[in-house]
Write a structure and sequence with these properties.
With 326 residues, the chain is an alpha+beta fold. The protein contains nine helices and four strands, in the order αααααααβββαβα. α2 (66-110) packs antiparallel against α4 (123-153), α2 (66-110) runs parallel beside α6 and α6 runs antiparallel to α7 (199-220). The two termini are 26 Å apart.
């Protein structure tokens, strides 16, 4: 390691080592807690095969009292998984604040940028080495944390009153979107540092950018894909929601397949419901959900958004630097 990359490592190694230490602690903690959880499931011959969904029809277990034992496992682990998920989801903000904002902003604030560029290092190599090292480390940290959350959550995923794939502590903390968001956080922080040329204001702008984009995507998330319409003829018992994400849209269908929301029609049950459906000419009921398989589609959509925004910010940041320093 030499040249601009060596310089980048010298200046960022403290942050890299702290991040590595935090990851090591998290990995040991998750390994211990998950092993304890799996041992409990094995010792009590518990299977969560039939426990998927808050309205699961039954829990397939090894004996009487199984559902209560499953809920005990969930109660013992959900809070801790949620905490790890919160840390993973917070990585883009932390990266933007404490890695991206000072990455170039501190150099501009202290005036050491010009000194570095007079030592035979070109602007492109200097910027690329600094950002590349930070990007590799940020992406690695995010990927490892996301994998730890998914590994721990996997055996009890989407079960009874536990955590579901569409929960923010899971969706924002696992999958490629979490990694893409970390890269975006770094790019946003770096861009803010170059624009402000001061670390503290850059940190504020980076925080605002990451939070705003993530909240915007969370609001838009239900709109990316049309929900699945589940239809049950007549008074046939409705299919269990299971691991799907309910939209809250229920209603009735007539012979032509037109939808009539339950908020306006037949808000009854039993014989009253049967009579109301007959009077209104309804032949079936519907319920709109987003199946668990949509997780990966939504993840890749948001990943593409984050990477696209990061690429645009990186290009813009280099352009601004070039105009100011060359």
């Amino acid at each position: 390691m030499k040249g601009t990359l060596w310089l980048a490592w010298r200046q960022q190694r403290a942050t890299v080592l702290v991040a590595a230490a935090v990851l090591a602690v998290c990995a040991v903690w998750v390994a211990f807690r998950r092993a304890d959880m799996m041992a409990f499931l094995h010792d009590h011959s518990l299977s969560l095969a039939g426990c998927k969904g808050w309205d699961a029809e039954e829990c397939t277990t090894g004996g009487a009292g199984g559902p209560e034992l499953v809920r005990r496992v969930l109660a013992d682990n959900t809070g801790a998984i949620r905490a790890l998920g919160a840390l993973s989801a917070a990585v883009p903000v932390l990266v933007g604040l404490f890695w991206g904002a000072p990455l170039i902003g501190r150099e501009l604030e202290t005036g050491t940028t010009k000194l570095a560029l007079t030592q035979g290092a070109g602007l492109r190599a200097w910027f690329a080495s600094r950002f590349a090292l930070a990007a590799v480390c940020a992406v690695t940290c995010s990927a490892v944390l996301a994998a730890l959350v998914a590994w721990w959550w996997g055996p009890v995923s989407n079960s009874l009153d536990g955590l579901y794939w569409y929960d923010g502590f899971i969706f924002n903390a696992t999958g490629p979107a979490a990694v893409g968001c970390a890269l975006f956080g770094l790019a946003a922080g770096t861009a803010a540092g170059v624009l402000h040329r001061r670390t503290l204001p850059a940190m504020g702008s980076a925080l605002a950018a990451v939070v705003l984009v993530r909240l915007s995507l969370q609001v838009l998330r239900p709109e990316w894909i049309a929900p699945e319409r589940r239809v049950t003829p007549g008074m046939t018992p409705k299919k269990y929601v299971g691991s799907a994400w309910s939209t809250g849209e229920f209603g009735y269908l007539d012979k032509a397949g037109r939808e009539y929301p339950i908020s306006h029609y037949c808000q009854t049950s039993g014989a009253e419901l049967r009579r109301c459906m007959a009077e209104e000419g309804f032949v079936a009921r519907y319920h709109k959900v987003r199946p668990a398989g949509d997780f990966w589609i939504l993840q890749w959509i948001e990943t593409a958004v984050f990477i696209g925004l990061a690429a645009a910010l990186i290009a813009a940041t280099y352009g601004v630097l070039r105009r100011r320093l060359v």
